[in-house]
User: Fold this.
Amino acid sequence: MKIPEGLKYTQDHEWGKIENKTIRVGITDYAQSELGDIVFVEFIEKGTHIASGESFGTVESVKAVSEIYAPVDGTILEVNEPLADAPELVNQDCYGDAWMVVIEMDDPAEADSLMDAKAYKEFLSAEAK
Amino acid sequence: MSAREYITRFPEIREPLLNTRSAKGKNTRVCPAPFDLTDLKDLDPAETMPDIPDLSEVETVRHFTRLSRLNYGIDHGMYPLGSCTMKYNPKISEIIAGASAAIHPADSNAMHTILRYCCLLQDCLLEICGMDACCLWPAAGAHGELTGMLLIKKAVTLSGREKNTVLIPDTAHGTNPASCAIAGFRTKSMPSGEHGYLTAAILKEHLDEDVAALMITNPNTLGIFESEIHEIAGLLHDNGSYLYMDGANLNAIMGIARPGDMGVDCLHVNLHKTFGTPHGGGGPGSGPVMVKGELEKFLPCPVIIKDNTERYTLSWDRPLSIGMVHSCLGNMGVLIKALTYIVSLGGEGLREASISACLNANYLKSRLIHHFDLPFNTPTLHEFVLSDLRQKDAGITTMDMAKTLMEFGFHPPTVYFPLVVSGAIMIEPTETESLDELNRFAHAMETIAEMSLNREQDLHESPRACPVSRVDEVWAARNLILTWDAYESNKGDVVSK
Assistant:
């Protein structure tokens, strides 16, 4: 299970990469492997303001449809449009080409409260029990 | 594309469409003209006629008969789809519902009888559920949910309170959040406790001023009875919130426990699952809604009333009603079947049906836990959920095992639901299966568990002998081919390459 250092993580299995006042968001390796083969992704429109914990899109596999939640309050600045035509990228490169949205954070300090790689790893092993 | 890949993507279709057999003039039947068609004689048939295949009667009959033999249904064998309750339904219900189908709504005497039956059915359901008032018209479970949530929305709005949230445990049916959203609520999901049911302590953490209702499925989708329901109802009522129960799993508790006695304010039940109508074929369903106390005045129109001459009539005089939710009288055939089922079993019979449903499920569970992981050890009722954890290391998934079951002549159980269990296998044998059939099913599952130790490839490639072999579901979902023409041309493209 890949859990890269330097990223932030949520309990809903999203990762976030902080780039100044923005955060790039995708789903973790654990999330993609639990979902299985991804066949469809859909995100809300650019420019939408969302609150932390609110859904900004859905990821669908042959097993289930799952919501993806915003890790912080903010405005959707960018959406990874090409992902809609190549949903398999989520399985192949979840931390790279399969990033999902970039959110402009209302308060960059909010990201401090997210888990780091070590904490997420511990969270996963606690979940497994 | 390898040959194997090709087969999984373009499986052999053993029965082509009628259109492909069509040829001009094959249909020799002449329809008598019921009226003078001279006005239509100048119309060009090529422009006005729909593109209906030209076939003889016998070719058409054989086409559908062959299709029916490729199909699998409850009349072939066990159909243990958990949460779906695919039980066998006595044919007597079909016969009686068929007889009622010829009644015309304008025949007032016959309609009086129909309304009397509806009233009797309402009374039966209210007695079974311990509720005060009933509306029979919603057309399915999710329609019942929506109707119930609209009643709650109206009650909350009229009372002038600002309550916009509905809490839903993660063991609820998947339609619950959708029904709430359409009724104008925000939904909030709650984790089930470590034992697979909602605890009062978890509810307390999520309960606030804005909570209009809790929507709970009982027994829940793990087949577990919500044993803290009394305390949960108390907490909600103290908070000015309603308790809505999804009664889709009523077949586990009818005649034994009544939602009304648990503190439920509003519920729907699925007549097509619990009471005498087969379901899952996309045919008509029925999801009556029942309420307690003050919610009654909001029930949909029309309501059945008995006038002072002892005649049953319909009344639309309901100023606070949420309005109509279905054309008048709902799906009558399903209502008649439900009444037939209830009356023919009687109170004691319904109770025995629930007990048998739970006994059958627990018998299977007690056999299968020796071979499969059981994520929640809490006692279960009419269904139970296993997982593929013990087979996972061998690379065998729930999907592999479900597909292999088809080789043994069984419909697979529900898979990958509920979402709280990774790789879920949800089994509901229902009360109608005999011990012999349960043993056959258990044996098939045990054989599959053994196969996972040394015949992995067989599991990955099953089924091989079914009308359609293993299909590449991922490829199919990513490359939607939705018509026969598209199928033929895609298939052709691959071959020519």
